[in-house]
Amino acid sequence: MIAVKKPHPTLRSRTVRTVLFFFVSSVFVLLCALAVTRVVMGSGLIRGPYPAPGKSLAWLLGAPETAYNYAMVTEGRVHRSARPDARFLEWMRDTHNIRRVIGLAGADPVHETAKKLGMEVTAFTWTPSQLPPQDELDAVVELLAGGESVLVHCASGSDRTGYAVAAYRVERLGWAVDDAVLEMSAHWHNPERYPDLHRALRARFERSAKDRPVPGSARKPVSSDPELLLAVGNAHSRIPVD
Length: 242
Description:
Elements: H1 9-43, H2 52-60, H3 64-67, E1 71-74, E2 78-81, H4 86-96, E3 100-103, H5 110-116, E4 120-123, H6 134-144, E5 150-153, H7 160-173, H8 177-186, H9 195-211, H10 226-235
Parallel strand pairs: 2-5, 3-4, 3-5
Antiparallel strand pairs: 1-2
């Protein structure tokens, strides 16, 4: 009969310690990586919207806003984003009590989800490179200023959404045009790509300023908003595409 040699107790305990060390080290590295990823996502350095795996990671880390190029335009009322999905719409309903969704990239299957969640839906088919029809832009501005909790979106939340929010800022909140354009840039819009459109947009704003002057007390220069200044500063190094 052949005797089986048992492992030496010291060798066995050393093996256990080694395994535990590598396990604890791996967990520590993973947690550090997740923490760094969370900070980077929250900083807005990575352009939203993210692809599906990135969105899943953002939800896991509790940072869905950047994944959808989301921002609050006016406290508690007007919100902007890239194309939402069902999970994001449900989160917007529960977190911000959204009552209406305005889609600027045409009808979308996700709008049916919005209706099932009890939201009203208004859809327009705009293109990134052309100024929206005046009556449609007027209608969107009216909805944004109407008092409902609203989410306005396009495909990436950069160009078409930027035009709508800029018109609302300038024509209803009294922002300077340059400040509104800076905010557009902070959400990955690049004014240099569409110079003709911006000339037309400025012409509209000049006309609206004469027709509907806004009291000076309503004006909010971008220089008074530190978070927007930081976002605009980060935007200078980006190359946005809708």
